[in-house]
Amino acid sequence: MEDVREDLRDASASRARRAGGLTRRALVAGLGWACGASAVQASPPDVRRELAPTGRLRAAINFGNAMLARRGPSEEPTGLSIDLARELANRLDLPLELVPFDTAGRVTAAAGLGLWDLAFLAIDPVRASEISFTAAYVMVEGTYVVAEGANYRAVGDLDQLGAQIAVGRGSPWDLHLTRQLKLASLRRAATPDDAIKLFVEQKLDAVAGVKQPLSVFVKENAGFRLIEGRFMAIEQAVCLPKSRPGAYRYVFDFVEEMKASGFVAEALARYKQSEAVLAPPASIP
Fold first, then answer.
1. Domains of the chain
2. What's the predicted TM-score (pTM) here?
3. Bridge partners of residue 188, in order along the sequence
């Protein structure tokens, strides 16, 4: 684990002023972008105690999703989810600890173990039994890669008897396809990269995953192509362990501000993540 302690308060205030975002005082008072006049926002001390009981904000980072988190040339963590975690820690005046994981499934499995306070995962009803999700901040498409000469042309073509599809175990694609596929079977690998290896080495019918990294694989490896269309659009959200209602409201409003202020859109452009799109505004349930 890597402790990251930074003070970005001045930069954060400057961004908020330039974008017309909420001031910290307005956010604390509950005047969030989407929570409405009747909502009551917990004060930062209350949020700090509830969200970060250890005195530091432990953010689970899934490095298996390169669209949102990756390691730089010197192994430094970088990406939109890390930027959001740093910004939130700064606002709450908390030290930040990044807790690395290599799959979304392992992040979810750790939710009940007290290993993290904040995470960045795709919204999924299975996970919602243990985790509270904010509204989405970005949306990501899921699709398939097949061999160049395969007869599959559309997403629906893969769901046929005998078809075998590689997928990362516990990933959003695994959860979704487990529910949706009627005839095809899934072959699960430990990570998304391992799923691609499984697909290639065992000559499976397809591999399912995030469109952006699959596009890179196709460009770098002859003999493969993307299937047109998508089998689902994943909504990436910030999430907390259950039973943290005051912290949840604060984080929900924080995410809406980051969307409305341009913070998320600027980060997507900075990291050249053209496959992800900014999610629309939302109100707290």
1. 2-139+235-278 (3.40.190.10), 141-232 (3.40.190.10)
2. 0.64
3. 167
pLDDT tens string 254-279: 999 999 999 999 999 999 887 788 99
DSSP string, 4-59: E----HHHHHHHHHHHT---HHHHHHT--SSS-TT--PPPHHHHHHHH-TTSSEEE
Please classify residue 13 by burial: count the beta carbons closer than 10 Å to its beta carbon, then call 0-12 exposed, 13-18 middle and 19+ buried: middle
β-strand pairing of 77-78 with 164-168: unpaired
- Helix, strand, coil % in the chain, rounded to nearest 5: 35, 25, 35
Amino acid (1-letter code) at residue 127 = R
The number of angstroms, rounded, from the C-alpha of 147 to the middle of its chain's C-alpha atoms is: 28
Q: Which of 21-25, 195-199, 218-222, 237-241 has the lowest mean pLDDT?
A: 21-25
Quote the crossing angle between the two packed helices 80-91 and 9-19, to the nearest 10°: 100
Q: What is the largest CA-CA distance in the chain?
A: 60
